[in-house]
Amino acid sequence: MPSAVKINALCELCHCRKAVMRRPKNLQKLCKECFIHVFETEIHRTIQREHLFYRGESVAIGASGGKDSTVLAAVMKTLNERYDYGLHLILLSIDEGIVGYRDDSLATVKRNQSQYEMPLEIVSYKQLYDWTMDEIVACSGIKSSCTYCGVLRRQALDRGALKLEVHHVITGHNADDMAETVLLNILRGDTARIEQSVNITTNSQGSPVKRSKPFKYAYEKEIVLYAHYRKLDYFSTECTYAPEAFRGTARTLLKNLELVRPSCILDIIHSGEQLKLKHKRRNASSEMEVRSNGSVSLPNKDGNRCERCGYLSTNRICKACILLEGLEINRAKVQIDGTSVDGAAKLTKTLEHLAF
Amino acid sequence: MSTRVIVKAEFLGGLDSIFGGIKETKCTVEANDSTLPTIKDLIKHITDHLLVSPNDYCVFIQEDTVRPGILVLINDTDWELEGELDYELESGDVVTFTSTLHGG
Ligand SMILES: [Zn+2]
Ligand SMILES: [Zn+2]
């Protein structure tokens, strides 16, 4: 049995306990206690530096029951109490209507509700759009399910927040997610999205709900370790509808790069932050940026509203409504001739040409 | 000299799905020579005996080691600090494999 801990196995901060992990960003070896403390403190510093919240603010945590949002809820509760932010925290969950996947993860969120003593609001695609994801996939096929789900989820979170009269939603997107998005935008030549994809806070033009990512600089690996060491209760099963293939490839590339050079995740985010578009022809950028000093850049004066549903949209009809319209046509056809109609790919093409 | 150890393996973060839903199990690991069994021998044991479908081999293994994105902890310590594949197992060790790749 290893009776004595070797000197080089000691925590580099407290020098008294055994190091259990090595931080990817700086290769520092830490014990369990120091790691938890350092992780939380760094999130607190990000929150302070970026002025993410104000005292008395109501903040909804986009909670999926997965590791990132579960850790986000745990850390936010801890910091809100430790540093007396004075925030009113609420869990906001989306029920996409995916039997066997979302059922189990919502059960996790419900346990989190009592574990973290936060109110919980669940909004469902069914109640908002009269479609569940299962019905959408049955109607339009599995191929573009992520595109559909992404469009609908974005609106659903906003609508859920407004229902609660909350104007700030925070999500568990971590540094790996940010780096992956930068990488994807570069690989697709989607340069217009690089700049906005690394913002810690975004606010759809004129939208009453802003979004922030307090874990922007937190490594996925550290989030999993944090959940493990604090024995947090999270849910981990891949969504029944497999993610987009290209995104998966980019994620694998990123993980292989991280193995060789762990700092690369933060380096990619840094590169994304430094890339600025030449401002020649900004065609209706729909995102406005809330800068760290609190000032705001407005690309257009007013947000347009969707003619159908009234949701903010740069186009006459919003993405969700276009998508739902296509689905309704498919549903009608399916009901008439009983065969599956493949309008999904065409619809996805239409959606890709619209600015978000 | 016995070169046989009994350790506990855990599959977390959704990784249990490729091991028939098993989240933890006792593994009897033997080295194929007179040395002490290592994590490498445990991984061979796992892929030989616990993996349900050979198609999922690449979900767990890449280039003769555990695939990047799967966190390996030996008694709660990251295996990076314990010599990774060459760590010599002791009876009673708990080796945790956690997928970090599943949705957040
Ligand atoms: Zn320490
Ligand atoms: Zn609309």
From TrEMBL, chain A:
What pathway annotation does it carry? tRNA modification; 5-methoxycarbonylmethyl-2-thiouridine-tRNA biosynthesis
Keywords on this record? ATP-binding, Cytoplasm, Nucleotide-binding, RNA-binding, Transferase, tRNA processing, tRNA-binding
Start and end of every tRNA(Ile)-lysidine/2-thiocytidine synthase N-terminal domain?
59-243
> SUPFAM superfamilies, alphabetically?
Adenine nucleotide alpha hydrolases-like (SSF52402)
**What biological processes does GO assign it?**
protein urmylation; tRNA wobble position uridine thiolation
Q: Domain (Cytoplasmic tRNA 2-thiolation protein 1 C-terminal): give its ranges.
A: 304-335
Q: Which Gene3D superfamilies match?
A: HUPs (3.40.50.620)
Q: What EC class does the entry list?
A: transferase
What InterPro entries does the annotation carry?
CTU1-like_ATP-bd (IPR056369), CTU1_C (IPR032442), Ncs6/Tuc1/Ctu1 (IPR000541), Rossmann-like_a/b/a_fold (IPR014729), TilS/TtcA_N (IPR011063), tRNA_thiolation_TtcA_Ctu1 (IPR035107), UPF0021_CS (IPR020554)
Q: Which family does it belong to?
A: Belongs to the TtcA family. CTU1/NCS6/ATPBD3 subfamily.
What's the stated role of this polypeptide?
Answer: Plays a central role in 2-thiolation of mcm(5)S(2)U at tRNA wobble positions of tRNA(Lys), tRNA(Glu) and tRNA(Gln). Directly binds tRNAs and probably acts by catalyzing adenylation of tRNAs, an intermediate required for 2-thiolation. It is unclear whether it acts as a sulfurtransferase that transfers sulfur from thiocarboxylated URM1 onto the uridine of tRNAs at wobble position. Prior mcm(5) tRNA modification by the elongator complex is required for 2-thiolation. May also be involved in protein urmylation.
Q: What is this protein called?
A: Cytoplasmic tRNA 2-thiolation protein 1
Species name:
Brettanomyces naardenensis (Yeast)
Automatic annotation (TrEMBL), chain B:
The lineage's top-level taxon is: Eukaryota
Its annotated pathway reads:
tRNA modification; 5-methoxycarbonylmethyl-2-thiouridine-tRNA biosynthesis
What does the UniProt entry say about where the protein is found? Cytoplasm
Query: What processing steps or modifications follow its translation?
Result: C-terminal thiocarboxylation occurs in 2 steps, it is first acyl-adenylated (-COAMP) via the hesA/moeB/thiF part of UBA4, then thiocarboxylated (-COSH) via the rhodanese domain of UBA4.
Q: Tell me the GO BP annotations in alphabetical order.
A: protein urmylation; tRNA thio-modification; tRNA wobble uridine modification
Q: Which GO terms describe its cellular component?
A: cytosol
> What InterPro entries does the annotation carry?
Beta-grasp_dom_sf, Mopterin_synth/thiamin_S_b, Urm1
Crosslink Glycyl lysine isopeptide (Gly-Lys) (interchain with K-? in acceptor proteins): position given as G104
Pfam families in UniProt: Urm1
Q: Which residues carry this modification: 1-thioglycine?
A: G104
What does the UniProt keyword field contain? Cytoplasm, Isopeptide bond, tRNA processing, Ubl conjugation pathway
Similarity-based family: Belongs to the URM1 family.
> In UniProt terms, what function does this protein have?
Acts as a sulfur carrier required for 2-thiolation of mcm(5)S(2)U at tRNA wobble positions of cytosolic tRNA(Lys), tRNA(Glu) and tRNA(Gln). Serves as sulfur donor in tRNA 2-thiolation reaction by being thiocarboxylated (-COSH) at its C-terminus by the MOCS3 homolog UBA4. The sulfur is then transferred to tRNA to form 2-thiolation of mcm(5)S(2)U. Prior mcm(5) tRNA modification by the elongator complex is required for 2-thiolation. Also acts as a ubiquitin-like protein (UBL) that is covalently conjugated via an isopeptide bond to lysine residues of target proteins such as AHP1.
What is the name of this protein?
Ubiquitin-related modifier 1
Origin organism is Brettanomyces naardenensis
